[in-house]
Amino acid sequence: MPPRRILIVGAGIAGIASALALSRELAPFIPDLQISIFERHDVLSTSGGAINLTPVAQRHLDQLGVLAELDKMGPQGGADIDGIEMFSSRSGKPMGTVSFTDRNGNGYDGYKGRRVMRIILSVALMAVVKRTKNVEIVYGKKLVKGEQKDDRAVLHFQDGTFAEGDLVLGCDGVHSATRTLWVDPTCPSEYTGISFVQTALSAASIKSPIHFRGTAMNVSRHGSLLTSYCDRDREELFVAAIVEFDEELLPFYRLESGREWRTKHIIKQTLGEEMRHRFGKSAFPCIREITNQPTDWMLYPVYQVPPKARWYNDRALLLGDAAHAMPPRDESAAYALDDAILFARTLARYRFEPLPDIFRAYQNLRRETVNKAFKVSQRMWAKNRDMGMLEGRLKEWTLPRTIRSQRGAREAAWEFDATKIDIPFSSEDLVLESFVKEFSLY
Ligand SMILES: Cc1cc2nc3c(=O)[nH]c(=O)nc-3n(C[C@H](O)[C@H](O)[C@H](O)COP(=O)(O)OP(=O)(O)OC[C@H]3O[C@@H](n4cnc5c(N)ncnc54)[C@H](O)[C@@H]3O)c2cc1C
After folding, report:
1. How confident is the model at residue 116, as a pLDDT?
2. Residue of 332, 377, 414 best suited for mutating to test ligand 1, as the one with most atoms within 8 Å of CB
3. From ligand 1's centre to the CA of 120, what distance in Å?
4. At 392, phi and psi to the nearest 5?
5. Which of 7, 182, 321 to mutate to test the pocket of ligand 1 (most atoms within 8 A of CB)?
6. What start and end residues bound the annotated signal peptide (predicted)?
7. Residue 341 pLDDT
C-alpha cells in the first residue's frame, strides 16, 4: 500500500519543500493523502539573517510556486544578485567573481542569485502551504522520541501528545532529533570551529562609498566579511563575518531568552569589539564604518553532520541539513530543495515498494553528489581560519586562480534540475545498484 499519512518533523526549507513536492507528486495517485508538518516553535521563527539563493535554489522554488510569492512581496522579496564579488579586505583589490550568470550575463533558464531575509522566505513558503489542500503545519510540537510500532511510525512530542503515520521525514535541521534519537544516535552534529557573526543595518546609515554592486566577500587573514543588500531597493544591508571562534567560548555568547539585559549588552559589546579587531583596519572605508556602528552583532556557531551519518531506518528518512548539514557556501538551501523534489519523485515512482527499498533507491540517487559537495565545502571553509601574515598573502594570491578554475563546475551546478533526473522505471535495478554503492560507502 502506498503511504497515505506522511509525518514531517521541522517546518524549515526541507520540511515545507518536501510537503509541497510530495503533495504534487502523490496526490494524483492517493486522493486521501495527508501530510502533517510538526514544528517545535510556536510561531514562525524570525531569526537567521539573510540567505543567498543560487540559480538552482530559485529554479526549484519556482517549480514549487514559492518564487512567485517572493516576487509578490515587492522589494522585500529579495535583491537580485549577479554574483559574489571577491575583494581583499587588506588591499581593497578585486579578486574575481563567483558568478550566478553565464558568460553573456544571462541567468540559467533566467535564474540568477537572490539574497533574501530568512523570515521573508519562510512567509513565502507558508503562503504556498496555506493553499495546498492536503498539507498542514502544527506548531509547538517538539519531537522527543520516534519509534516504529507494528507497521506504523509514531512521533512523541514534548507536550505529551503523539502522532502516527506510515512514513516520517526528519527535516529538523543540523541538530535533528529524528537523527540523534532514532535514525542514527551515533552521529550528533559537530562544531566546525567557525561561526557567523552577523547583523543587518540600514544602507542609508553608511556614509562612505559602497564598493560592491550586490554582494561582496571581503577576504582577510582574520576570516571573511560578507556584505550584501537583501532587498530590491537596496535599502537594507546584511553583514556577516565568517570567523574562527573557540568552541569553549560558545556558551557565553548564547543569546537565550531569560538572560539578563546586562549580559546581553556585554555579549553584543564584545562581539562588536571582535569585529573591529578583525576588520576595523580594512582598506574599504564602508567596512571600517560598519564595524564602528553601534549595531547588534549576533553569533551563529556553524555545525555540520558527519558524512557517515545513516539517512534512514525502516520508517524514517532524513532530508536537508538533518541528513547532511555542511559548512555553508551559499548552496545548502539548494541541496535541501533538491532532496525534497528528488525524494517526492522517487516515492511516487516506487510507491508500491517497501519503504526501505524506496529510501535506498533515493540514497543511491543522491548520496554521492552530497558527499562530493561536503568535501568541497570543507576545503573552502578551512580558508576562513585565522592565519599568519604569509599564509594570508598566499590565500590572496591563489584565490583568483581558484575562482577561475572552478567556473566550469559552478556553471554545471547552476544547470541542475531535480525534476529532470532520470529515475529508472524498475526499482529492482536501482536497488541492486544501491546495495553495491552502499556497501562501498560504509
Ligand atoms: C549561518 C548560516 C548561514 C547560511 N547561509 C546560507 C546561504 O546563504 N545560502 C544557503 O543556501 N544556505 C545557507 N545556509 C544553510 C541553510 O540555512 C540550510 O542548509 C537550510 O536552512 C537547511 O534547511 P532545513 O530545512 O534542512 O533545516 P532548518 O532550516 O534548520 O529547519 C529545521 C526546522 O526544524 C525545526 N526543528 C528542529 N528540531 C525540532 C524538533 N525536535 N521537533 C520539531 N521541529 C524541530 C526547526 O525549528 C526548524 O524550523 C546557512 C547556514 C548557516 C548556519
Report:
1. 96
2. 332
3. 14
4. -60, -45
5. 321
6. none
7. 98
Ligand 1 pocket check for 78: Cβ under 6 Å: no
Average pLDDT over residues 183-189: 97
Give the atom of ligand 1 at the shortest distance from the alpha carbon of 115.
8
Domains of the chain: 5-78+109-190+304-384+400-441 (3.50.50.60)
How far away, in angstroms, is 371 Cα from ligand 1 center?
Answer: 18
Give the Cα separation of 304 and 243 in Å (integer): 16
pLDDT at residue 293 greater than cutoff 90? no
pLDDT tens-digit readout, 212-237: 999 999 999 999 999 999 999 999 99
pLDDT at 90 over 50: yes
Q: Is the CB of 10 under 6 A from ligand 1?
A: yes
pLDDT in tens, 45-81: 766 789 999 999 999 999 999 999 999 999 999 999 9
Any atom of ligand 1 within 6 Å of the Cβ of 321: yes
Tell me, in angstroms, the distance from the centre of ligand 1 to residue 178's CA.
Answer: 14
Ligand 1 atom, smallest distance to 321 CA: 26
Q: What is the mean pLDDT of residues 93-104?
A: 95
The minimum-distance atom of ligand 1 relative to the CA of 195 is 1
Amino acid 404: pLDDT: 94
The total of other beta-carbon atoms located within 10 Å of residue 369's CB is: 16
Name the band, by pLDDT with cuts 50, 70 and 90, for residue 101. very high
